[in-house]
Specification:
Layout: H1 3-46, E1 56-60, E2 74-77, E3 80-82, E4 95-98, E5 107-113, E6 126-130, H2 140-146, E7 155-163, E8 170-171, E9 175-176, E10 192-193, H3 194-199, H4 221-232, E11 237-244, H5 251-254, H6 258-273, E12 277-280, E13 283-285, E14 295-300, H7 317-339, E15 344-349, H8 353-359, H9 362-365, E16 371-374
Parallel strand pairs: 1-5, 6-7, 7-11, 11-14, 14-15, 15-16
Antiparallel strand pairs: 2-3, 4-5, 7-8, 9-10, 12-13
Helix pairs in contact: 2-4, 6-7
GO molecular function, one term: hydrolase activity
Catalytic activity: Random endo-hydrolysis of N-acetyl-beta-D-glucosaminide (1->4)-beta-linkages in chitin and chitodextrins
Protein name: chitinase
Length: 389
């Protein structure tokens, strides 16, 4: 090999050697730079302290953790009931791992989230007072007190208010008995007992506090007895229950349109929350029943069908019931904003899961109702004086 050839060969060999050395140095250096950037971004994403080269763990304090509560039902009735229950959801822990071909230590950043404990709801104990007893209008409110139940209750539901078949509003001021045949599809049409509600004068022997209703008092009857019961038990809340097995016939018609829902809800609040009862026999009048009731119980038996013979129903009942409850919640809250009070809204649920699926959007009741009452043993809501244990 000549001198020129040997020189050229030497240059080629030296170039190849230098190139190899550059690759051997540049690859690890570039890999290390990339790994450092990835770890830095990962820390920024999980808001964790800077990690040491060895595996590190960072914890988020309970106060920083998110928790959501969901209201659930607690049953009530002779009638069944339920209490609200809260459920906390914990965020899942996140982990970021970076590995490289060169000997860069594995870095794992773990965030542990501890949920805040959910508050335990108070126990809810609900009793029903029937509008009519075996003798037309009996002192069932007094029975709650003398039987020792009133002091154990948190809520009393007065059952039932009816729906006017003509105006599709809350029916008030009517004294008309039910049709005697329970299989009559029109059994509850136009029925009511305003005499038992607020017109009947209780004697001293019948009255809760031993004081007879004055003949000229605008409020007497069961409504006045409820006011006396609440005065004796200041924490007790009372609700008017609308519907029931016999009076649910027209709920589907009431709930079908937005205008119908607004009209119906306003009429119920006017009569039972604002207390504007029709005048009759020297009783009633604007504001005469104010303060008797603290809220509304919607007892539609049943949306989607399978209720009393003759009940109206629609495939849209399930959705329309939610819309009706939404309207109740809106109007109750608007009134509460003016009076500085929170008015209660509850709903009665069937025990049959198929009927629940057909008529109730349970997931949408959260935030609308304060609690729900659940049918017990297949029985309907009113069985006089029934109490949820």
């Amino acid at each position: 090999m000549g001198a020129i050839t040997r020189g050229a060969f030497t240059v080629v060999v030296l170039s190849a050697l230098l190139s190899s050395l550059f690759v051997a140095w540049y690859g690890p250096a570039r890999a290390t730079e990339t790994g450092t950037t990835a770890v830095s971004q990962a820390r920024s994403r999980v808001v964790a302290p800077r990690a040491a080269p060895a595996p590190a763990r960072a914890a988020v304090a309970p106060a920083q953790a998110g928790a959501a509560q969901a209201a659930t039902a607690q049953a009530a009735t002779a009638q069944a009931g339920m209490a609200q229950a809260g459920t906390a959801h914990a965020a899942t822990a996140h982990a970021v791992t970076v590995q490289n071909a060169v000997p860069v230590p594995e870095v794992t950043v773990t965030v542990t989230v501890t949920p805040s404990p959910s508050p335990s709801p108070g126990r809810i104990r609900v009793g029903y007072v029937a509008q009519r007893g075996a003798y037309g209008a009996t002192s069932t409110v007094r029975d709650l007190e003398t039987g020792g139940l009133a002091g154990r209750l948190t809520h009393v539901l007065y059952a039932f208010a009816n729906i006017d078949p003509a105006s599709l509003t809350c029916l008030t001021g009517v004294t008309r008995p039910l049709a005697p045949d329970p299989n009559d599809p029109d059994q509850g049409d136009g029925a009511g007992d305003a005499w038992a509600d607020y017109q009947r004068g209780f004697t001293a022997a019948e009255s809760l506090d031993g004081v007879a209703d004055p003949p000229d008092a605008p409020l007497a009857g069961n409504f006045n007895q409820l006011k006396k019961l609440k005065a004796r038990h200041p924490g007790l809340k009372t609700l008017i229950s609308i519907g029931g097995w016999t009076y649910s016939k027209y709920f589907s018609d009431v709930a079908r349109t937005a205008a119908g829902r607004q009209r119906f809800v306003k009429s119920c609040l006017d009569a039972y929350i604002r207390g504007d009862l029709p005048g009759a026999g020297g009783r009633g009048g604007p504001g005469s029943a104010a303060g008797v009731f603290d809220g509304i119980d919607v007892d539609w038996e049943w949306p989607g069908g399978k209720g009393h013979l003759g009940n109206h129903s629609s495939v849209d009942d399930r959705r329309n019931l939610t819309a009706l409850l939404t309207e109740f919640r809106a109007q109750l809250d608007a009134l509460g904003a003016a009076t500085g009070r929170h008015y209660l809204l509850t709903v009665y649920l069937p025990a049959d899961p198929d009927r629940i699926d057909a008529g109730f959007e349970l997931e949408r009741l959260v935030g609308l109702v304060d609690f729900v009452n659940v049918q017990r043993d297949g029985r309907h809501a009113v069985r006089e004086g029934a109490v949820l244990r």
